[in-house]
Design goal:
By secondary structure, this protein is α+β, with helices and mostly antiparallel strands. The protein contains four helices and six strands.
């Protein structure tokens, strides 16, 4: 399915010192929270490192997300940026196959659909990926 997505853009504003660009799933740079109302899915994508948001804004576009959900009948994707939170909210219409009370789908609430968003391929300079990995490790460190 991801082979039909538009090609990745070259990451913005990065010099050769950032290292080679590698393609990774979005979950390496962000996590997500979802909610739904009727046949509409809200998916918040939150960067592990807020400074990486320009890269996510460039590559997690409404067009790419719409293509990602085309097989589910999505008719429109709107993106709302939340720069002070290092996040964006994606509102995806007509993706829940009628909504919780209408769908025969296993997950009528759409919560598992955040994993589809988080699988979106993203081009990332190795140095930024290292930063994100460090942030994830710190977030998941055991309490002392």
């Amino acid at each position: 399915m991801t082979d039909t997505l538009p090609p990745l853009a070259d990451p913005i504003g990065l010099d050769a010192a950032s290292g080679p660009v590698v393609t990774v799933p979005l979950y390496r740079l962000a996590h997500a929270r979802t909610g739904d109302k009727g046949d509409r899915l809200n998916c918040a994508v939150i960067a592990w490192v807020p400074a990486h948001m320009p890269l996510l804004v460039e590559q997690v576009t409404p067009e790419r997300v719409a293509q990602l959900f085309a097989h589910r009948g999505a008719t429109r994707v709107r993106r709302f940026l939340l720069p002070r939170l290092g996040a964006m909210n994606l509102v995806i219409d007509d993706v829940l196959q009628g909504g919780v009370t209408m769908s025969l789908g296993l997950d009528g609430h759409g919560k598992s659909l955040s994993y589809l968003v988080l699988a979106l391929p993203i081009g990332v300079p190795q140095a930024l990926l290292d930063d994100a990995d460090a942030a994830i490790a710190a977030e998941n460190a055991p309490w002392r």
